Amino acid sequence: MAHHLHAGAAVWVRRPAAGVQNGVTAAASEWLPAVVTSADEGGAAAVALEGSGEVVACAPADIELRGDDSCVQDLIRLAHLNEPSVLSALARRYAGGQIYTNTGRGIIIALNPFTPMPHLYDAAAMEAYRSEGAAGDAVARAPHVYAVASQAYWRMRGEGKGQALLVTGESGAGKTETSKLIMKYLAFLGGYKSKDSDDGDAARPSVEQRVLESNPLLEAFGNAKTVRNDNSSRFGKYIELHFCAAGSISGARIHTYLLERSRLVAPSKGERNYHIFYQLLAGATREERSRWALGASAAAHRLTAAAGCLALPGVDDARDLLVTRHAMRAVGLGADEQERLFSILSALLHLGDVSFDPCPDGGDGCAVGGPAAASLAAAAGLLGCGAAALTKAVTTRTRVTPDGPIVSPLGAKAAAETRDALSKAARAAALLPPPLPRFGGPPAAADPRRREGVIQQTPRGARAVNAPQVIYARLFDWLVARINEAVGEDLVGA
After folding, report:
1. What is the mean predicted confidence (pLDDT) over 378-407?
2. Which residues are annotated as a binding site for ATP?
3. 409, 429, 449 — which closes off a domain?
4. What span, in angstroms and rounded, lies between the C-alpha atoms of 268 and 262?
């Protein structure tokens, strides 16, 4: 961009960066601070780089004006709103432990600190942004995700209209954690009570508690380790929080979409399958392991071992299973439902272990024998179907003709593909009971104008249809429906 430059002007200059310097990639270090030594009328200039003093010639397209923005909390207050000034302001704040930066009213940039920062989210911080005045005072309060959530809450209260909060960013940017912080804070605002208030039925978790308890459950079944993020959401979600006229949470509803089905059978090298499988294999009791015929560890099953990543630093999968089970109880999943759920997960692990051999007589078709036959029998038993029927489903192809169905045997390769890419979705879906009915809209007792919507976007995943994927996707949908039943309208509390 051409600027009217003069000697002594502070500028940013774009310099090609070779490789990585001091741990910073070229993309992060391409703009360097400099001072103009001379300039012509066309905008080209000679500049002296700060630090080294090296004088270089720069074209107009490689120069941006630079101001003193060391204390800026809001990017719209930058003296010169350009790319290097924005990046520099964010980097300065990040280096000082300030991970949030405003971009006007109602928009905030959050940089993932990749380390716990409990002081940012303690009781004092929650209280600081609770009142309507504090939420709107951008000068008196430091930028914070709580401030954005509080602004949306009080605007909903004041205008009587629904509000939406969009959380978006690259994988590993912190969308999952930010969404949880927003939900926690809105639950705090909507459920705020004095110490002397009547809590009603103390034995039943509050709506706020049930909403928050749904998070670890969704993470266990919908999150996985990727090359960029150890806890990456592999689905998108839209969460509605419903409030009564007095401003208290009266219910919630979760919508999910684009679950990455392909991860179940083909996680990329160095990644992991969904967390729940590793939790199950690490935390199942000896009696449960025997009942579900599970291996001793994640290394014993193809679905959890094939990608080569069995454990995560700092993650205790066995402990996390206890957290997941607690969340199941909190949202109303009884012992029988939990047993059925873990049986289906175990069946999927066994189904992934099934392999196929060519027919010993050299003819068409394939055979399932040895350990593979035991895995298939275990899967069939846990799914509640006959081993012969399941074997036929994965080793044959049925064509419907005017003269009736024609059943053809599949070779070993085709049968293996059918195991992971079976087109008979109806057969796979029939292995699960119908999911609970979805709620058709906000509960009747909630004011539809008073809603907070939290949208977390995720990259689009593969959409291929196959038997294990269909089973897992239906299980995930069923789980979301059960959560929605638990966090739906609290008619007593409303």
Report:
1. 80
2. 169-176
3. 429
4. 10
φ, ψ at 21 (rounded to 5°): -120, 120
Q: Is residue 199 part of a domain?
A: no
pLDDT at residue 29, as a whole number: 52
Residue for token digits 């029939």? 430
Tokens (6 digits) for 72: 């800026």
Nearest-angstrom CA–CA distance, 201 and 477: 30
Segments forming the whole domain that contains residue 404: 351-429
Q: Is residue 404 part of a domain?
A: yes
Taking the C-alpha atoms of residue 462 and residue 263, their distance in angstroms, rounded to an integer, is 8
CATH number for the domain that contains residue 61: 2.30.30
Residue 146 — pLDDT band, cuts 50, 70, 90? very high
**pLDDT digit string (tens) for 33-63?**
999 999 988 888 999 999 889 999 999 989 9
Indicate the residue among 429, 447, 474 that finishes a domain.
Answer: 429
pLDDT in tens, 321-351: 999 999 999 999 999 999 999 999 999 999 8
What per-residue confidence (pLDDT) applies to 138? Answer: 47
Tokens at residue 408, please? 């053809």
Q: Which residues of 45-75 are buried (b: 16+ CB within 10 A; e: fewer)?
A: bebeeeeeeeebebeeebbbbbeebeebbbb
**What are the φ and ψ backbone dihedral angles of 492, each rounded to 5 degrees?**
-70, -45
- Let me know if residue 368 belongs to a domain: yes
Closest CA to 281 of 217, 220, 327: 220
Q: Is 198 exposed, middle or buried (0-12, 13-18, 19+ CB in 10 A)?
A: exposed
DSSP strand pairing (451-456 vs 163-167): parallel
State residue 163 phi and psi, 5-degree precision.
-125, 155
Residues tagged in the binding site annotation? 169-176
What does the alpha-carbon distance between residue 59 and residue 52 come to, in Å, rounded to a whole number? 20
Q: Which of 253, 259, 260 is nearest to 454 (CA)?
A: 253
pLDDT tens-place string over residues 113-131: 989 999 999 999 999 998 7
Tokens found for residue 258: 């684009």
Q: How many domains does the chain have?
A: 2
Choose from 442-446, 463-467, 469-473 the range with maximum mean pLDDT. Answer: 469-473
Instruction: Work out the angle at residue 294's Cα, subtended by the Cα atoms of residues 288 and 295, and round it to the nearest 5 degrees.
Output: 130
Tokens, residue 59 = 């074209």
pLDDT score, position 1: 54
Tell me whether residue 22 is in a domain: yes
Q: What is the DSSP string of 161-193?
A: --EEEEE--STTSSHHHHHHHHHHHHHHHHT--
The tokens of 109 are what? 């940039």
User: What is the spatial distance between Cα 315 and Cα 46, in angstroms, rounded to a whole number?
Assistant: 53
Rounded to a whole number of angstroms, the distance between the first and last alpha carbons of the chain is 58
